[in-house]
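ok so for the tutorial part 2 we go from a plain amino acid sequence to predicted structure tokens. step 1 is just haveing the sequence, like this:
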Amino acid sequence: PLQIPPLRDRPEDALDLARVFLDGHVGGGRGPWTLTEAAQDALRAHPWPGNVRALKNAVERATIVCPRGPITPHHLGLAAAPPRAPAAPSEAPAPDPHAPFPTHVDNEIRHLKAALARTGGRLYGPDGAAALLGLKPTTLQSKLKKHGLR
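step 2 — the prediction. this is what the tokens look like for a chain of 150 residues:
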């Protein structure tokens, strides 16, 4: 078997793959396209939980919403990449030893909300929150209902 690391472990490949996918969509009065700097940064910064398939879908989506010209993170369905400068350790506030410690339920709710935010509220499918969390969609629905999340 061929062992290829996931796309999230090789962000430099995302840009090359995106360009190949863009070239494959040129024709029929559509294209050519260019990737803006912000789009390039967003492609490199995105974790690509669906691996190359998710990248290909994002590029295809961009070619549909933008028939030709510059492609932005918005066209790809990605938020603009955050600034690359890491926060200095001295700027991080020290944890308050007297602050209430989050409970398991608090952490689960926060985790579910983060998964829903990352998937745009989508529960089902390979790009859905259930797949991201490694849960069956019905299990995820039960957890959301239990915590009153929509």
